[in-house]
Amino acid sequence: MFRQRLAQEAFEKGKAKRDPMAPRVRAAVPCRPYDLFGAREEPLVGAALEGATFEEEDFSGIEVANSAFSCCSFRKCDFTGAYFKDVRFKNCDFSNGSFERAVFERCVIETSKCLGASFSRGLLREVVLQGTDCSLASFYQARWRNVLLRETNLSEATLSEGDFKLVSINECNLIAAECVHVKFIGIDFTTSQIEGLVVSAGLDELFGSKMDAYQAAVFARQLGLVVE
Question: Where are the annotated coiled coils located (predicted)?
């Protein structure tokens, strides 16, 4: 009972108290596709880019703020060390791209594709991921600060060694996601799919999280318990 009380207290303390802050987007000026290449020397601010297509381009180290991207494709592009603040991405494709050590602050990524993309060692602060495919993506050692994941596919994604604080997961697919050495304190899994979630043998990652009876029974079996 004592450990159960500790888990309940940890859940209440660790759960997100509010939604992430909305991005302050003032994208009044249409942006030309090649303007993005100059964002490494001078930040791109207040831009609107729609329908642009890039592949295997180098955008490492760019800075973008107060902007909106719609229906753009950035397949296999390199955004290593990029910085995005107050940016909204809608219907964009970042599949197999690299966002290693990139920073997203007050950003929304909705109905987009990040299939196989790498966000390793990056920072997501005040971010919403909505209706986005992040299957097979890597968030290894990423830092999550007040992030909302809603209706997002994280199946077979790598979340291992991530630093989660004030994260909400609603109606997401985490089937077979690798989550070793992640503290899911305060996270409610009851609306999400977590079959095959890869955690350590002692299930330490799940302490202070919330799940329904069926989900809990699956992990109880991993501990050698007989559940009827």
Answer: none
Q: How far is CA 24 from CA 11, 63, 67, 87, 158, in A?
A: 31, 15, 8, 8, 30
149 in a structural domain: yes
Assess contact for 32 and 52: CB atoms under 8 A: no
CATH assignment of the domain containing 97: 2.160.20.80
Tell the residue number behind the tokens 């304190």, with chain if given. Answer: 185
Residue 228's pLDDT is 59
In a domain, 118, yes or no: yes
Q: How many CB atoms lie within 10 A of CB 100?
A: 21
Q: What is the CA radius of gyration of the chain?
A: 18
Whether 36 is in a domain gets the answer yes
Asked if residue 99 belongs to a domain, the reply is: yes
How does pLDDT run across 32-61, given as a tens digit for each residue? 888 999 999 999 999 999 999 999 999 999
Domains: count for the chain: 1
pTM of structure: 0.93
Residue numbers of the domain that contains 46: 2-222
Cα dist from 30 to 107, 136, 222, whole Å: 19, 33, 54
Could you give the CA distance from residue 202 to residue 51 in angstroms, rounded to a whole number? 47
- Name the residue with higher pLDDT: 131 or 223: 131
Q: Which amino acid is at 150?
A: R
Helix or strand run (H / E) with residue 108: strand 103-110
